[in-house]
């Protein structure tokens, strides 16, 4: 499959996924008990004239499809409507929090890739005690929920030792990285352990391949064999798991942001759900789904960059 055709198909799939998602998000929120009218009226019953005025003000008296396509058209222009709670544009609310969530996910991704791939390769090359210790640590991290890890990190390294701040995203890039260190570690430990297991299995399988045995018989050093014959061939499943893991971090950031009082998209989404702030929920969910699909597109592109023998889309 050629690159233009591959990209065209992936972009078409992206548009289809976003259309279906936007329709479901927009429609399902109006099926909750009371809908937006329950929030707008509060504890008041409201006269028929008041209800009619509110429905007209928020265009709730328009047919559903007209409201949906109107909202979708505005969303394509970057306008997700007004927050019912904050009385502020949803786009403005998200833009101020997007940097925090984005930097947190990026920081956690770096930790996952470095720790997961490094420990996985080390476990595959150093069978015995080293491999057993790494496997034990991986099992512990995989079995420990993210919120438990976050609370323990706060108790030990923030409150106990005082090495890191307890909450807040910080200001400026160095201070932000300092504030986001514990949240990124809490968000990444389980995923790093899972990636380490996948990397160990993939590298171990490649080490048993015939071409690796041939390279050993020709006298090549172990480091040369690992660099030239093992890592690239073992990277396809590693890239796949990394892409899925990074996409999952976007959802996992909700828990971490609440533990460390980070004002990101995740905490904004939780508050919006509890407060029935429909416009904010719709906007945040659509942005998160878009990020998820784009990450999977990037993974597909990486396949062909890692191994040119694979045509675009073949590895999936």
Automatic annotation (TrEMBL):
Residues 98-299 form the ABC transmembrane type-1 domain. It is found in: Cell membrane. InterPro entries: BPD_transp_1_N, MetI-like, MetI-like_sf. The keyword Cell membrane applies. Keywords: Cell membrane, Membrane, Transmembrane, Transmembrane helix, Transport. The keyword Membrane applies. It is a multi-pass membrane protein. Pfam families: BPD_transp_1 (PF00528), BPD_transp_1_N (PF19300). The chain crosses the membrane at residues 12-32, 104-125, 137-165, 177-199, 236-260, 280-299. PANTHER family: DIPEPTIDE TRANSPORT SYSTEM PERMEASE PROTEIN DPPB-RELATED (PTHR43163), PEPTIDE ABC TRANSPORTER PERMEASE PROTEIN (PTHR43163:SF3). Belongs to the binding-protein-dependent transport system permease family. This is ABC transporter permease.
């Amino acid at each position: 499959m050629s690159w233009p055709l591959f990209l065209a198909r992936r972009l078409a799939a992206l548009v289809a996924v976003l259309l279906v998602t936007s329709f479901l998000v927009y429609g399902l929120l109006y099926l909750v008990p009371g809908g937006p009218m329950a929030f707008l009226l509060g504890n008041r019953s409201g006269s028929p004239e008041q209800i009619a005025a509110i429905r007209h003000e928020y265009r709730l008296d328009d047919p559903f499809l007209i409201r949906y396509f109107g909202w979708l058209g505005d969303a394509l222009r970057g306008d997700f409507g007004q927050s019912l709670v904050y009385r502020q544009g949803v786009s403005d609310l998200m833009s101020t929090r997007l940097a925090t969530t984005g930097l947190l996910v990026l920081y956690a991704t770096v930790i996952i890739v470095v720790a997961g791939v490094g420990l996985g390769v080390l476990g595959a090359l150093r069978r015995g005690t080293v491999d057993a210790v790494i496997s034990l640590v991986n099992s512990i991290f995989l079995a420990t929920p993210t919120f438990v890890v976050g609370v323990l990190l706060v108790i030990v390294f923030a409150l106990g030792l005082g090495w890191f701040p307890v909450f807040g995203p910080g200001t400026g890039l160095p201070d932000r990285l300092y504030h986001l260190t514990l949240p990124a570690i809490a968000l990444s430990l389980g995923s790093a352990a899972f990636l380490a297991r996948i990397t160990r299995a993939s590298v171990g399988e490649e080490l048993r391949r015939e071409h690796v045995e041939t390279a050993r018989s020709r006298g090549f050093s172990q480091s040369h064999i690992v660099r030239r014959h093992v890592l690239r061939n073992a990277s396809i499943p590693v890239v796949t798991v990394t892409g899925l893991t990074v996409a999952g971090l976007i959802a996992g950031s909700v828990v971490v942001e609440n533990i460390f009082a980070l004002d990101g998209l995740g905490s904004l989404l939780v508050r919006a759900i509890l407060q029935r702030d429909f416009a904010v929920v719709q906007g945040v969910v659509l942005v998160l789904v878009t990020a998820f699909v784009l990450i999977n597109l990037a993974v597909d592109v990486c396949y062909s960059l890692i191994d040119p023998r694979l045509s675009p889309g073949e590895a999936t």
